[in-house]
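Not sure how to ask, but would you mind making up any protein sequence you like and the tokens describing how it folds?
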Amino acid sequence: MEITKNELNKIGPIPQGWDVIKLGKIGEFKNGINKDKDQFGFGFPFVNLNDVFNFTTDSKNLSLVNSTTNEQKEYSLKEGDVLFIRSSVKPSGVGLTCVIEKDLENTVYSGFIIRYRSNGELEKEFKKHCFNEFGFRKWLIAKSTISANTNINQTALKSLILKLPPKPEQQKIGAILSTWDQAIEKTQQLIEQLKLRKKGLMQELLAGKKRLPGFDGEWKEYNLGDITKRITTKNEELDDTVVTISAQRGFVRQEEFFKKRVASSTLSGYYLIEKGDFAYNKSYSNGYPMGAFKRLDDFDKAVVTTLYICFSIKENADSDFLLKYFEGGLLVRNIRRIAQEGGRAHGLLNIGISDFFNLRLTLPPKDEQIAIARVLNSIDEEIKLHQKKLRQLKNQKKGLMQELLTGKKRVKI
């Protein structure tokens, strides 16, 4: 368990007053419990992989497993224990950690997790961050094995080397980085609150359950074809900019979505759409079982597959309002009806063009559409601002970790 000269060379300069030590010297590792499938869903709390990834090891929210008193003792979880992900589909997921905040009574942990119980050399707040430092992560992944999944074992974890500052410095480093964690968490919570607020407003405003001040005009029923014009223009302009609808991200370049171009070399058989045009993707998924509507916003022109139903918005409707209307799922019920009649084939909803443009919508006058869209767009802008702030906080924390956990920047005690 001694550190070799070659290993010392790999970890780089050691800050004055710091120690270097292998994890196996200052703690013990233990693999988690394995049970048959029929033993889950009842019994006592159980920490699984998702709890580690999401840092939600609160026993009130945990799954259940049928564990004995002896198993609860052998696979116990105490304050300060570190849980390492033992196996992950992606290399970036292996060896990720979370720290147990308090003793978890009668709780055991999954066989896909390795518990690390240190002997007191590591401060709890320091443990929350030291295993995420870039150099440590790089070494951990290098010591992993790759088969169907990427795996790390106890032997490899024991051999990993940690740069260890004195305890007062550990406490200060942990406190500084935890301050960033708190700011990140608050920003994430605020984003989720704004999303919930937007969702609630969409349900009320887009369906006319709540009216904005100053509007009392009658809402009217239309066919989708009354307010849109189908686009069937074949591409004769572009040799690239082939885009695909991502249900989560909107229009993205095909190479980005599929990691390669899947369109044919000649694009004359594809539709050409312009900025502001809409397309409906008939492909279905768990998150979007009735397909997805998206508007082309990030490209002046683009090429799409003829499997999409493409259309522009006529002057009698507001494009921003309809974007929110589609996003709010107000057409889902009608699409489900015609999809059930037409069935499904090869991952696509079998929706006829005439049925599609005969879908019924109940809409307010155009001036009210514009006002509703403005309210919802303002929430979107607020969400984007906080998402930008969240990215900045995460980048700041990442930079601080590299400086503080390697000793490049020292804290004053």
